[in-house]
Design goal:
It contains seven helices and no strands.
Length: 162
């Protein structure tokens, strides 16, 4: 394998998997979607600008996930989000764990493109330009939709706060 491809896999596999996991809510299906995205990256590595690999990969991963969601049967039961890599340590309080779980569930409840915007911008810290490229939106749309998504999250947080 090429050295640059291996580097890209190390750098971006967690981000691709997290995005796929939030969108698909199924760890096995998320792994499959990521594998397909990395196969496409392998096949196209010579034609992709090295400075734009991350947005290209996130876009391919997201599109693959959306294709999988469209193929699902409407009655198919979705699994709940449970991150197998997140194990509460002895110092982690119950409140923090509950808040983290609530936040994951709330992000999962957002409609597209809001969910992708929050994951890409707030969870993965992509630049606005990268988010715009991945989602094929212009900058005002990214900012407007992200504002609406964050507003929905704040409103839902206000409902659970005493």
């Amino acid at each position: 394998m090429s050295r640059k491809f291996n580097q890209w896999v190390r750098e971006y596999q967690d981000q691709a998997w997290t995005l796929a996991r939030y969108l698909l809510k199924d760890p096995a299906e998320a792994e499959d979607a990521c594998q397909e995205a990395f196969v496409k990256l392998w096949k196209n590595q010579d034609s992709i600008d090295p400075d734009k690999v991350r947005p290209w990969l996130m876009k391919v991963t997201r599109n693959g996930c959306l294709d999988r969601l469209r193929r699902r049967h409407p009655t198919e039961e979705l699994q709940e989000w449970h991150d197998p890599h997140t194990v509460a340590g002895p110092m982690q309080g119950m409140h923090q764990s509950e808040l983290g779980s609530w936040l994951k569930n709330t992000i999962n409840s957002l409609k597209e493109p809001y969910r992708s915007l929050v994951v890409l911008r707030d969870v993965h810290q992509h630049s606005y330009e990268e988010v715009a490229a991945v989602l094929e939106l212009n900058m005002p749309q990214v900012k407007t939709y992200l504002h609406r998504a964050r507003k929905q999250l704040r409103e839902q947080l206000a409902e659970v706060r005493p």
